[in-house]
Design goal:
Mean pLDDT: 82
Number of helices: 10
Oligomer: single chain
Order of helices and strands: EEHEEHEHEHEEEHEHHHHH
Radius of gyration: 21 Å
Strand content: 15-25%
Largest sheet: 7 strands, mixed
Distance between the termini: 30 Å
């Protein structure tokens, strides 16, 4: 279906035809906007992401915004949010009057349990929200680090509830395909948050801990690629990730316990000179990692 798409990215928005190429990640907002001549609007929290004098900047959206951006939002059939969880909930609550009747809302937020039920609970009956999560990102932020190939080969997850219509689920899945994701999956809210605690949040915890475990100032002069690869994501947005960790606290702590158990097992094998135990873990690790290579 053709229609208008208001994309609200951290914390900006753009209005495009659904048939046009669009990107949900804030890092590519400026590049995509300029490439396809797409106007940009900002939320109050996102002022300064795009220069005020930029020819495609329409100004602010919502109750603190201006008439140009709000007029666009009232025509949008699909609204895609890329906001921190608490900002997302508050913004929708305060600005849902700017959505047209029949509009579908979706998002790219990294956790779902803390937002989906609440938003679906207060949202107008004539507007539908279906959650989604593009499993693609970078350790750097800002439009200067934009990458229009960031979704190539990546996974996209649709996270519906019993309140979602079949049409909205299909629309969200089709959006993932349109944007070039390799695989579109459907998960429930709890399943999504448990999975994300392991695949994303725990990996960031490991990278953070590793970088904080040794204060030798000359490590960067000695390291090889393995350390660089393993700690790439330790260059972290502390405001965003601390909120994501606490918003998914119970699931993340369960995965941290499981990781600690596996790490302690390897520690004990080494401490006890148990080479066979070490090699068994290494073989299991290798076999599981090869499955990822097959789907790359």
């Amino acid at each position: 279906a053709r229609g208008k798409c208001m994309i609200m990215g951290l914390q900006n928005c753009e209005n495009v035809e659904i048939t046009a190429i669009c990107d949900l990640d804030e890092d590519v907002l400026k590049e995509i906007s300029e490439k396809y001549n797409i106007p940009i609007g900002e939320t109050q929290a996102g002022k300064g992401q795009i220069p005020y004098a930029h020819p495609l900047n329409m100004g602010g959206c919502g109750v603190t915004g201006g008439p140009a951006a709000n007029a666009v939002s009232k025509k949008a059939d699909l609204v895609i949010f890329a906001l921190y969880p608490h900002i997302f909930v508050d913004w929708v609550k305060e600005n849902q009057q700017y959505f047209k009747s029949g509009a579908v809302l979706t998002d790219v937020t990294g956790v779902k349990g803390c937002i989906v039920e609440e938003i679906q609970g207060f949202l107008r009956d004539d507007v539908e929200y279906i959650a989604a999560h593009p499993m693609a990102g970078k350790e750097v932020s800002g439009v200067e680090n934009s990458d229009d190939g960031i979704f190539k080969g990546a996974n996209y997850i649709v996270v519906p509830t019993e309140k979602n219509s079949k049409e909205a689920i299909e629309l969200c899945a089709n959006l993932g395909e349109l944007l070039g994701f390799r695989k579109v999956s459907i998960l429930g809210v709890k399943e999504h948050d448990e999975m994300i605690a392991f695949l994303s949040q725990l990996t960031h915890c490991v990278a953070i801990s590793l970088m904080c475990a040794n204060d030798n100032p000359n490590l960067c002069e000695y390291t090889g690629d393995s350390f660089r690869d393993l700690t790439r994501i330790a260059n972290i947005n502390d405001e965003m990730w601390s909120e994501l960790f606490l918003s998914n606290k119970e699931s993340l702590l369960r995965q941290m316990d499981a990781y600690r158990e596996a790490f302690d097992k390897l520690y004990n094998y080494i401490n006890n000179d148990d080479r066979d135990g070490m090699r068994n873990m290494m073989r299991l690790s290798t076999a599981r990692r090869r499955e990822f290579n097959k789907k790359a």
